[in-house]
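Operator note (shift B, R.M.): manual run for 3-methylmercaptopropionyl-CoA ligase requested after the automated queue skipped it. Running by hand, logging everything below so the morning shift can see what happened. Input copied straight from the record, untouched. If output looks odd, do not overwrite the archive copy; leave it for review.
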Amino acid sequence: MIAEIPDLLAKRAALKPAAIALEDGVTGRSLTYAALDARAGAAAAMLAARGIGEGDRVAILCRNRIELFELLFACARIGAILVPLSWRMPAAELDLLIADCAPTLLIVGGEDLATARALADAPAILSLDEDYEAALAAAPRRAARPHWPAPDTWYLIYTSGTTGRPKGVICTYRMALANYVNITSAAGIGAADSTVSFLPHFHTAGINLHALPTLISGGRVIVLPGFDTDALVALLAARRIDTFFAVPTVYRALLAHPGFATLPLDHVRHWGCGGAPLPDAIALACRDLGIRLCNGMGMTETGPTAFLMDPADAWDRIGSVGKPQLLCSARIVDEAGRDVSDGAVGELLFGGPGVTPGYWRNPEATRAAFTSDGWLRSGDLARRDADGFYHVVGRRKEMFISGGANVYPAEVENVLAAHPAVADVAVIGESDPQWGEAGHAFVQLASGAQADATALAAYCRARLAAYKVPARFEFVDDFPRTSAGKIRKNLLVAQCKTCR
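Run finished. Output pasted below as returned.
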């Protein structure tokens, strides 16, 4: 087992000092690896001058920007722990996270200063737009540690809270290195590649898919403040992106963009997707454009890359998340913890160096997340086919039983998502006097489209067994979502008196 990792940024700066590491996608400002190395060193010195050292937490609250990566590497050099916070949360929610991680310093972007100042018990605040550059310039230089202890905590990512209160996932140096191996071997990321980082940096995909692996590889990361369809289309039109990762809602928006279908897309070597179930309809629409959309699956707790479809199989295996990647081990087990046979549904378990050691200061949640022999419980139900490809059929907590038969909401959602009038859908089990439980479908219609419950039920009956057809359809203007675009079903349950 790896005990120490060399300072990866310093190594990369020594190997490719003049290569561009980071580029601001709005202003065009860029940093070479030598400049990023120097600024990370200055940031480390600035933090140390403020008394921050081994194990101390440094929180950051800002939209996507280059400075987050400077601070990520700065924390590595002094053994501090970076905690990216969600700018989508109000002060009242952030108060809970601040109390949990107890940061010594809160670094804040200009757009979020008011929120930071409204915190009930805010630590010292450093403004990225008002104080950061001066603080870097004034800090006395100091020697950085040449190695990073692999098992140590590098940063914390708070879960999005789709099933309850967010938990701080411990992310170690070993996890980052395992994710680098998993995603670069699957997507072929190398030093000549450029990628775009637009998913929120307080989410694991924002840091790790593909930004951090690309930096470790010596490639270029173009940073956008957030998701902007026009900006992404412009980068694609300029042939500036070699590898691309997004969540299904982003692909849905790109497919709806009037200019996307006419773009030259042959320069993009790898298209990745994850973060939420990928509807077949989106994968098929991408296939029609010649895009080999590689569906995958992972968790914040797995670093995140666990599964990813090979491009050669992408068009023939729609609906699968592929196979476990190089440093990921996976099992599917029954209620007794026994491995199931191919084709059978069971809970998906993970092992390997990419798996988190647990949750920050939450031993109870950590114990609940692992089996007695150390496998991480995903909470997902899956099956493996005879060729070794995995299929995630839904969340264990979301499955419901109708008339004695198991119903997996993801299967029903996939069918409804293919209806031309449906923009998005979420299915939840609810109490039913006749069948015990039945499906309750929340449906968001596409702009200008029309469909009623009778039409949607008939559409389902033609494609699903009768017990899987939702008993009720409720139409919504939009869904509450996580930072990854995943529907927050717990909030839908809270507003539905009969849902469980």
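Quick read of the result: Residues 64 and 101 are 21 Å apart (CA to CA). The two ends are 44 Å apart (CA to CA).
Leaving this for review. - R.M.
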